[in-house]
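question for whoever is on the cluster today: can someone run the full assembly for these? two chains, 915 residues total. i dont have access anymore since they changed the login thing
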Amino acid sequence: MNKYKVWQIILIYSVLTFGVIFALPNFYPTKPAIQIAFGDSARALNTNIIADITRELDAKNIPFTEIEQSDNSAKVIFNDVESQLAGRRILANYSDGEFIIALNSEPSTPDWLRSIGGKPINLGLDLAGGIHFLLEVDTDRYSIERLSSEGASFVEEFSKRNINSNYTSNDNKIDISFKNFEELSMARDYLDQNNFTTSGAKYNILQNNNALELQYTDNYLSEIVDYAVEQNLVALRNRVNELGVSEPIVQREGKGRIVVELPGVQDSASAKKIIGKTANLEFRLEARPTDSFLRKEKFSFKNSPGRTVFLEKVIVISGDNVTNAQSSFDENGRAQVNINLDIDGGRSIQNATKDNIGRRLGVVLVEEKTKTFFDNEDNVRQETFTEKSVISNATIQAALGTSFRITGLSNSNEASELALLLRAGALAAPMKFVEEQTIGPTLGQENIDKGLNSVIVGFILVFIFMFVRYKLFGLSANIALISNLVLVTAIMSLVGATLTLPGIAGIVLTVGMAVDANVLIFARISEELKANVETQQAIKNGFAKAFSTIIDANITTLLVAVILYSIGTGPIKGFAVTLSIGIITSVFTAIFVTRSLVNFIYGYRYVEELKV
Amino acid sequence: MNIPFIKFNRIGIMLSAGLILITLISLLGRGLNLGLDFTGGVSIEMKYEQKADLEKIRNSISKIDNANFVVLNFGSDNNVLIKFQSDEELNINAQTVIDQLAEDQYLGEVVKSETIFPQIGEELRDQGGIAILVAMLVILVYIIFRFQIKFGYGAIAALFHDVLIILGIFSIFNLTFDLSVLAALLAVVGYSLNDSIVVSDRIRENFLDENKKGSSEVLLNDSLNQVFARTIITSFTTLLVLIALLIAGGEALKNFSLALAAGVIVGSYSSIFIVVRVLLITGLSKKDMEKPKNEPEESYSLD
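^ ran it for u. tokens below:
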């Protein structure tokens, strides 16, 4: 008799039940929604936005099903697209350009599913529509600039010690020349002392005549490039968040590239403007009470909009000059922010502060924001505008240089927030767009429909063929095939993998392989029967003999998938992900699920004759 | 059923050799019609309410400097594809074209737009090639470890054969080779392997079986006959899905499913003819399959 033990049956069907539950969210339709991002705007702090929205929509009799609120945004969910579009008009008027309003679609996953982590599959841009950007950080130029500014700061340090020197630099070394040997050795002592970071030496020093050559280690060079790219990533994330897109992707790819994906967004030009915006910090001295209004400007504070301050119109330095800002603690354990400037910035701030000790220096954050409104012809327009607010206004204790700190912050939270704002202002390294792709929503829907329809048609054909050719065995194989699809869907939904068009193709390939596994098993069973082996034994032998073939074939294909995943990017990765998941689930369903069904049909009784 | 596969092998090999020769001539002569993904450039897909006036579009965008656009219908009379392929540094992007058409008041609904800079395309080409080579190497190691090196040679030869012939089909018929076709090619690598392994596995089993007597040729022929039905059925079912994809999957999946379908056919064929030919050339025998016996080694030990 062919029977699985009770625990085996329980295990197989628990896995399948798990699959059904987590595949379920994909069968609930998405609902049209509007996302309102109010960020840190003053109005959001002072009024009850949710109550306002409800009132505005009710006043115009626009039905909606739900309003959800999170930290700095809200989501209104509608029953149909008409009310969604009507709702957008009203909310855009209400927002008056202060909030970002974006159309969206929201999955209608029931609460009980959501509470156990159930969610539908993420659709790639080729299926959902939206914008894809690939940006490249100019790492070479960054290294050159970085070493040049480092060289300049060495020369500055030396001159403080009365050492005269000159420097030249490229992307991996700095040459410094000196007047005589004594000065060189003094400089060398300084360089040796400062040659350490947490991960080893920064440079190797070569000496010839009255010059020193600092050869930067590859390790350190890649570290600074890494830092710059990470920095840009943070800045980009902040900017993308301003767009109010529901599930944006901002991801590093390889050494110096950053992928930005904005599902559902259509206006490429304005998205590009926001992503590509630059320089937005200004350091200005606080104006004296006696200064005329021509020389000063009024700003409000970012985190308490009611508070204002007058700053001078002269900009001492801008965000471009900030090379780094990090929060830390001072000797007494109080939170502070350490700021590093480039050489030009250091010079300017020194000139500005040396005669102004005791006065305050304000830091202004300049933000490009987008305003959505309707023009006379009822078209949606977006306009960018600039908003300036003060993020810090601290007293100058001494003449400042290339590195200084802001102390007296109330806690480490405030310090890290300030450091982030100081860094987020400017991009660490220059970037350019190397790939842009816009996919319209109609094309996305068309791709889904066509892909899905053809897969369904293909499946039905396979089901018919398998049933005609293998009868009850074929039926078991077909059920196994459906379980495979359910499991692939469940796992992809659960791990948050993205389904793309090549991904659908990956699934088709695993279907072929799953069928192959069952065909191999059935062929073996029929061989056993031909050799006059008793029916139950034939089934047992068939499964056993096909097992190693199936495993070998699937492991090699899995290896290919893993290689594709690690080498490939974008669409190739999407294909590799579904292929890997599909191979693993198909081995499970084709061997164990089919076996349990075959056992169920034939295993509990005496079978005189078996046809395969 | 007993088909004399070994007898037909020579004919099969000659056919393969012919196909590969044509492939090489075509690849060296005219090369591949590489898609935008691999060369870089600008492409825009647009949809008009009525039949699109291609001349009007051409006139409008001819005002853009330094770019030779191809303007053609795509799928239907209302859909238009505007394409500019270039492997030199780009100074325009899709927005340039959209702006120009908007200025001339003949902008349709933008269904899809793409701007890809040439260095990305070049990297992708390298990446695809490296992926296939690394995949082959890892597979070879796995097969040597699990089977025997001669099977490894067989599987790799079949892989080369299959990938080359698909490249040949794309070159000869001047079909666009884009990223999705590369993905298909990689899937063909997987599929071809699956076939080679199933065949190799059967051959190994028969060579290991002490009760089976006969020359290598007889054993190989028996093995092929045993797996033949399976090969046909599996290829057929996979083809069913692929043909559905080819017919109903739309423009985006057309070349992809074509490459995969060709791969499935060529892959099944090569597992029967190429793998076996390599095993015949390298002279696989029962001796190769004998595992070195584990004799206890002499050793000194302290007691």
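summary bc i know u wont read the tokens: Chain B has a mean pLDDT of 87. Residues 41-116 of chain B form a domain with the Alpha-Beta Plaits fold (CATH 3.30.70.100).
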